[in-house]
Amino acid sequence: MPSTAVGMRCGCVCVGGGGVFKLRAFMWVDAEFPAKRAAPLSPAAASASTKFFEVIKYWCVCVFGCLRETDRTLVRVQDLTAEKADQLIWLRARVHTSRAKGKMCTLIRKCHLITVEMSLFCNCGALFELRLLTPSASITKESIVDVEAAVRKVEQKIESCSQQDVELHIERIFVISQAEARLPLQLEDAVRPDGDGEEEGRATVNQDTKLDNRVIDLRTTTSQAIFRLQSGVCQLFRDTLTQKGFVEIQTPKIISAASEGGANVFTVSYFKTSAYLAQSPQLYKQMCICADFDKVFCVGPVFRAEDSNTHRHLTEFVGLDIEMAFNYHYHEVIDSITDTMVQIFKGLRDNFQTEIQTVNKQFPSEPFKFLEPTLRLEYTEAVAMLHEAGVEMGDEDDLSTPNEKLLGRLVKEKYDTDFYVLDKYPLAVRPFYTMPDPNNPKYSNSYDMFMRGEEILSGAQRIHDAQLLTDRATHHQIDLEKIKAYIDSFRYGAPPHGGGGIGLERVCMLYLGLHNVRQTSMFPRDPKRLTP
Amino acid sequence: MPSTAVGMRCGCVCVGGGGVFKLRAFMWVDAEFPAKRAAPLSPAAASASTKFFEVIKYWCVCVFGCLRETDRTLVRVQDLTAEKADQLIWLRARVHTSRAKGKMCTLIRKCHLITVEMSLFCNCGALFELRLLTPSASITKESIVDVEAAVRKVEQKIESCSQQDVELHIERIFVISQAEARLPLQLEDAVRPDGDGEEEGRATVNQDTKLDNRVIDLRTTTSQAIFRLQSGVCQLFRDTLTQKGFVEIQTPKIISAASEGGANVFTVSYFKTSAYLAQSPQLYKQMCICADFDKVFCVGPVFRAEDSNTHRHLTEFVGLDIEMAFNYHYHEVIDSITDTMVQIFKGLRDNFQTEIQTVNKQFPSEPFKFLEPTLRLEYTEAVAMLHEAGVEMGDEDDLSTPNEKLLGRLVKEKYDTDFYVLDKYPLAVRPFYTMPDPNNPKYSNSYDMFMRGEEILSGAQRIHDAQLLTDRATHHQIDLEKIKAYIDSFRYGAPPHGGGGIGLERVCMLYLGLHNVRQTSMFPRDPKRLTP
Q1: Beta bridge partners of residue A89, listed in sequence order
Q2: Measured between CB atoms, does A262 come within 8 Å of chain B?
Q3: What Pfam families does this protein map onto (chains A, B) (predicted)?
Q4: Which of B177, B316, B527 lies at the smallest CB-CB distance from A493?
Q5: Residue B169 maps to which CATH number?
């Protein structure tokens, strides 16, 4: 049971593996401390416990000889609530901050004491440098430690932690992995809202420094929340579609011919020839439809060799792709996609509030709004709204990025939604394989979807007749020889079909109201960034 | 209701979108047939139904003007059971085979009749060649048709179909998409077991022809079953891991440095510099562990520029990757992975019997056997078993492919399992980042997993100490400059961790007892194949 001796109280705040969970832990140290902790296992007894030994020897030798249990249960930080009060528990955690209370007592110094004590047993077969055990060693921030501690209820909520009702009184602490003393960035700086604490001279960390040191930046509560939510988006996407009878497919990324005419494509050396990286899985999705898979989806990397250095372009991103045969009208496809998006939005709203709130602390934004059923506007309506707002543009002009954003604001004002579909784009601004609108040859059966005024999906009914496809490709002056395989796919019976591709990073960025797609790409790639 | 007139009976067997479902359909034709079918909509009434019109004009004009309903419900082939007997239904299906019964009556000729009749209404705004409506047109095999038909119970089971208790008596039939008359391969040939019907001169289709015409080959019941099962493997993999608290991550495929020393890596032109295609997501998985994600998985393409033209090598395949921090022993990792595999095997056994049986019809194999808990052998035990079987090899030699297969047979005989783990590989045959065995420096904390005697996973405890990693890389004569970023990832506190990568196509191939990984890759890539 926990020591009740009165001595120096050392505070350290630990972050658990769960990332967004935090609690406060203390260690009480009295004069007898070194003596009390000096009764470890003999090396012989320890090596009998070979299952444990096998690993522990490679961790940190200061642990070896001190742990008697090999199957001890480690409690997770998020499970440390008032219900566990007065229990003695084991916890593995990363040291987030450490600060002194009382007269010059710091956690680091106390751990240092333990380390010195442990060093008595450090010559039992250690294979690597015992730098952790030198007298100058200390428990640095970001080190991983095992602690044995008593859970204690507190009277005043601990505002700085996620676990506000309890604190830990540490009995023993062992270093599992020691971090280098100099960190390339401080986590508390990396999560500071822009402008916050500027007067006190507190730093924030710029994006390139964060990305250069991503392994540390990903430990911040903000990053942990973003990527756990991203994992949720993928799962909700797939679960919804599987429920709807879609089949997951795997499409090749190395392809023999550039699918969309050869612009913006990366070239790969492929043995004695050259190949390309797929700019989308579209041809393969369509082949699956022609092969009777009926409804398919895929989740995978998409490559664009565009030299665009904007907040929303990446050279490699994750595509959430859908393609499906329909019965009578391509709006069946739109309905399937919008319902999938709505299920994602609902799932995030209902199951990821902790993550959303965590991100909001650093990057405040309005909650994401959506309608059921999803708003669908026709392109001509959108142009009319823009005209009314004073924008000068032709009926068949493509939307510029600023006009897309303006339209997003106009739609939000009028319909109170952050998500909508823009249907029936002018035929001239869409790729050759887009099905023309049979009622008005200037328009097409194609659509984009928008979140907070930015495009997240582009899609269309595709031409499934080889002759019409040939005619349209000729009209676009595309070399028919290069797309022969594509056109031939439709010669042996093809059902009417449509689909679209969603950018995962954009969905996460816009749902959370962030402003740079690099924040929602774990290891972003752009024309200037290839590392880490 | 269905015509009761006695006339010529034409048979056609349709395959539904579900791929593995098949049923028989007939059409009765009497002398009055043309007259009865000549009462379509007027063009004016038809164009009022614009929602339908919009699409249908681009399908097949012979349909236009004949369908009164736009929201008619299409029944799926698999739902056509005895319960639907005597109902009049609509079905969209692909014409699989068509054959004549009675005096010279073929389906094709009868459809031809309808087509001629439809051509009366073909001049209403058709945009493309009306080749379907010429007197010589016919419903070719592989065309997609809509039929209105009565479901009729049969007295004798129809052995050649999946829907054995009912047949369809077609009232009306419309061509949705006409296939070209000459198919590059016949589906019935493509599903014929090797050697079957050889005496009668029946053909089988060789693998290259199948792969060259994949869009048709994927329509075979065998391919449909394989890839629906593959979709199931991915879902079971992810669901099991999500349940275990794993987080899905997305890792980049374009990387700045070749991760494993530069051999067998594809080079990409990246703007003004060069980059590489990732040979595995391992570095990124490990970085996520160092960034406190604790347990992660990813599903994505993996690229190997190996000039290996074997039955089990691809240059691009799908990796099911796992990485996790563990508490006390790397066997925690093995246990997580083997349990995941067992959940996959159980899920396939319980939910994919139709698919398994379908594949077995063409490629017979024994049911896949596995134990709970999974059998784990140590490398030294395996070598002893091989020695006993007369194989000459050193204790620390790597296993050759024939020896792996032999070992698989020996293990099957002795333990009656098709799945097992081989643990504690010789350190010398594993990559530099593999954690040595602390008890015996000749071995390592690493493992492979096998299905039916072939490797499907390679994994290990990874070295998480920067200094030990540096020592091991130096021992392997690896240029430290090139792996600096990798080593630096472990400098800021890294928990002990391990993982592994599973080849999706191999798992599917070996579970189903197939003999070439190209059968379980939808669009395989090897040194000689880049298309389709």
Answers
A1: A149
A2: no
A3: tRNA-synt_2
A4: B177
A5: 2.40.50.140
**Does the annotation count B312 as an active-site position?**
yes
Query: A277 and B300 in contact by Cβ < 8 A?
Result: no
CATH of the domain at A291: 3.30.930.10
CB-based burial, A285-306: b 16+ in 10 Å, e otherwise: bbbbbbbbbbbbbbbbbbbbbb
CB-CB neighbors (< 8 A) of A51 in chain B: 328-329, 331
User: A87 and A191, same structural domain?
Assistant: no
Q: Could you tell me which residues come within 8 angstroms of residue B196 by beta carbon, excluding any fewer than 6 positions away?
A: B202, B204
Order across the sheet with B247-248: list the strands.
B247-248, B295-303, B316-325, B497-503, B454-462, B446-451, B419-423, B375-378
Asked whether residue B291 falls in the same domain as residue B212, the answer is no
> Which residue of A49, A52, A55, A272 to mutate against B (max B Cβ within 10 Å)?
A55
Q: Among the three residues B177, B209, B233, which one is the final residue of a domain in this structure?
A: B177
Complex ipTM? 0.86
The reported pTM is 0.87
Are A292 and B94 spatial neighbours (Cβ–Cβ below 8 Å)?
Answer: yes
Q: Does A378 lie at the interface with B, CB-CB under 8 angstroms?
A: no
Is B432 within 8 Å of chain A by CB? no
Average pLDDT over residues B104-129: 23
Any domain includes B28: no
| B287 within domain boundaries | yes
Q: Could you tell me which chain B residue has the CA closest to the CA of A520?
A: B250
With beta carbons under 8 A apart, name residues in chain A contacting B76. none
* Same-domain status, A343 and A481: yes
Looking at residue B221, what is its pLDDT?
Answer: 87
Helix (H) or strand (E) holding A91: strand A88-100
In sequence order, which residues have a C-beta less than 8 Å from that of residue B444 and are 6 or more positions away? B424, B425, B426, B427, B430, B434, B435, B436, B437, B460
| Contact indicator for B303, B253 with CB cutoff of 8 Å | yes
Residues A358 and A227 in one domain: yes
- Residues B194, B254 share a domain: no
B284 → closest Cβ in A176, A234, A523:
A523
pLDDT digits (tens, 9 = 90+) for A204-216: 899 999 999 999 9
Cβ–Cβ contact B240 with A under 8 A:
no
Closest to A170 (Cα-Cα) out of A150, A144, A146, A152: A150
Closest residue to A316, CB basis, from B57, B254, B288: B254
Q: How many domains does chain A have?
A: 3
Do A102 and A118 belong to one domain? yes
Helical packing angle, B331-351 and B504-511, nearest 10°: 50
The pLDDT value given to residue A71 = 60
Q: Which of A238-242, B62-66, B222-226, B405-409 bottoms out in mean pLDDT, i.e. has the lowest?
A: B62-66
For A327, the closest of B74, B231, B436 (CB atoms) is B74
Q: State the best of B21, B55, B486 to mutate against chain A, taking most chain A CBs within 10 Å.
A: B55
Predicted confidence band of residue A333 (pLDDT cuts 50, 70, 90): very high
In terms of domains, do A197 and A248 share one? no
Whether A413 is in a domain gets the answer yes
Element (H, E) at A501: strand A497-503
Name residue B502's beta-bridge partners: B320, B457
In a domain, A329, yes or no: yes
> Quick check: B301 and A300 CB within 8 A?
yes
Determine the distance in angstroms separating the CA of B150 from the nearest CA of chain A, rounded to an integer.
20
Measured in angstroms, the CA of B264 and the nearest CA of chain A are apart by 10
End residue of a domain, out of B198, B219, B240: B219
**Interval A265-305: pLDDT, tens:** 999 999 999 999 999 999 999 999 999 999 999 999 999 99
Domain of residue A130 covers: 77-177
* Residues B301, B166 share a domain: no
Say what percent of chain B tops pLDDT 90.
Answer: 55
Cβ contact B293–A251 (<8 Å): no
pLDDT tens column, B412-450: 999 999 999 999 999 999 999 999 988 888 999 999 999
